Every structure is written in structure tokens, then in C-alpha cells.
């Protein structure tokens, strides 16, 4: 085990200290180690060809120019990867969508990035899980 020094702002330290107390950690080091492990695991990508399923969620402003149309076109262009999309009209102008994608990891990740990069799409999040091949 090695000891390192990191610099964090007060605000972040307060969040970490709350987490230490709430989760019953022995100290800050243990909590930070856990957070680092989770963060590093999450970013460990699957092989491009590996079959996966993904949950993509995002919020958008319905009135952003042509956005609903552009999203719809993107999904149709990749209908082979799209299993289902849940659309919630949050209020008069905002929509929340949750899409389930399935296919080769490389293509699924590419499509989810394309969706989240659309102008007007906010709070994009994607969770990729290994899955068996589609039958
Ligand atoms: Ni809507």
C-alpha cells in the first residue's frame, strides 16, 4: 500500500465526510478507495465485438429545433440495435427518454454517444452490461 497526497476543495471533502459517516467507513481513505474502484471499473470498456445490452437515459427540451425528429431518425437508422424506448412527457416542454439497446458493444456505445451528443440532449447517461447474443 502506498500513501499519496491529493488536493480536494472543501465542498468535495464535505460530501466525502458525509459519505464516510453514512456508509460507516473507517475513514476517508477507505471511502475514496471504494469510489475510485467503482469509477475505474465503470470505465473499463467491453471488447468491440462483445454482445451487450445498454440502458441510455437522457432529458431534452422538446422545442429544440428538430430534435425529436433527429432522435427518431437516429433510432430508425439503427433499428437493429434498438429494443425499446420509454418516452415520458415530463412537463409542457421537457421529455425524458430511456432506451434499451442491444448488439455489439462497439456499435451500441457509438449509437449511445451519438444520441447524447445531439444538440439539446442533457443529462445523458449510459450503462453498458455484457449480454448473451441475440437469438
Ligand atoms: Ni415528450
Structural features:
135 residues; alpha+beta; Alpha-Beta Plaits; four-stranded antiparallel sheet; 39% helix; extended; binds nickel (II) ion; DNA-binding; nickel; Acetolactate_synth/TF_NikR_C; metal-binding; DNA binding
By DSSP, the count of extended strands is 4
Under CATH at level 1, the class of the largest domain stands as Alpha Beta
Which regions contain 5 or more consecutive residues with pLDDT less than 50? none
Largest sheet: 4 strands, antiparallel
Shape: extended
In the CATH hierarchy, the architecture of the largest domain is 2-Layer Sandwich
The rounded distance between the terminal residues' Cα atoms is: 47 Å
How much is the radius of gyration in Å? Answer: 19 Å
List SSEs in N-to-C order: HHEHEEHE
Q: Could you say which structural class the secondary elements and strand pairing correspond to? A: alpha+beta
CATH superfamily descriptor of the largest domain: ACT-like. Chain A, domain 2
Q: Which percent band covers the strand fraction? A: 25-35%
Number of separate domains: 2
List the strand order in the largest sheet: 2-3-1-4
Number of H/I helices: 4
Share of residues in helices? 25-40%
CATH fold description of the largest domain: Alpha-Beta Plaits
Hetero groups: nickel (II) ion
Q: Mean pLDDT score, rounded?
A: 90
Q: Can you put this structure into words, describing what you see?
A:
With 135 residues, the protein is of the alpha+beta class. It has two domains: 33 residues; 80 residues, Alpha-Beta Plaits. Helices cover 39% and strands 30% of the residues. It has four helices and four strands, in the order ααβαββαβ. A four-stranded antiparallel β-sheet has the order 2-3-1-4, with helices on one face. α1 packs across α2. The longest helix has 15 residues. It binds nickel (II) ion (NI). Nickel (II) ion binds next to β2. This is Putative nickel-responsive regulator. Pfam families: NikR_C, RHH_1. Keywords: DNA-binding, Metal-binding, Nickel, Transcription, Transcription regulation. One of its GO terms (molecular function) is nickel cation binding. InterPro entries: Acetolactate_synth/TF_NikR_C, ACT-like_dom_sf, Arc_rbn_hlx_hlx, CopG, CopG/NikR_regulator, Ni_resp_reg_NikR, Nickel_NikR_proteobac, Ribbon_hlx_hlx.
Amino acid at each position: 500500500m502506498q500513501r499519496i497526497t491529493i488536493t480536494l476543495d472543501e465542498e468535495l471533502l464535505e460530501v466525502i465526510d458525509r459519505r464516510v459517516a453514512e456508509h460507516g467507513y473507517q475513514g476517508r481513505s477507505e471511502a475514496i478507495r471504494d469510489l475510485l474502484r467503482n469509477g475505474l471499473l465503470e470505465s473499463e470498456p467491453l471488447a468491440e465485438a462483445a454482445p451487450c445490452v445498454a440502458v441510455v437515459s437522457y432529458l431534452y427540451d422538446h422545442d429544440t429545433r428538430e430534435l425529436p425528429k433527429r432522435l427518431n431518425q437516429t433510432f430508425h437508422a439503427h433499428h437493429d440495435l434498438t429494443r425499446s424506448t420509454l418516452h415520458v412527457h415530463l412537463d409542457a416542454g421537457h421529455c425524458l427518454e430511456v432506451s434499451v439497446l442491444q448488439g455489439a458493444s462497439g456499435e451500441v456505445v457509438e449509437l449511445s454517444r451519438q444520441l447524447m451528443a445531439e444538440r439539446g440532449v442533457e443529462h445523458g447517461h449510459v450503462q453498458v452490461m455484457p449480454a448473451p447474443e441475440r437469438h
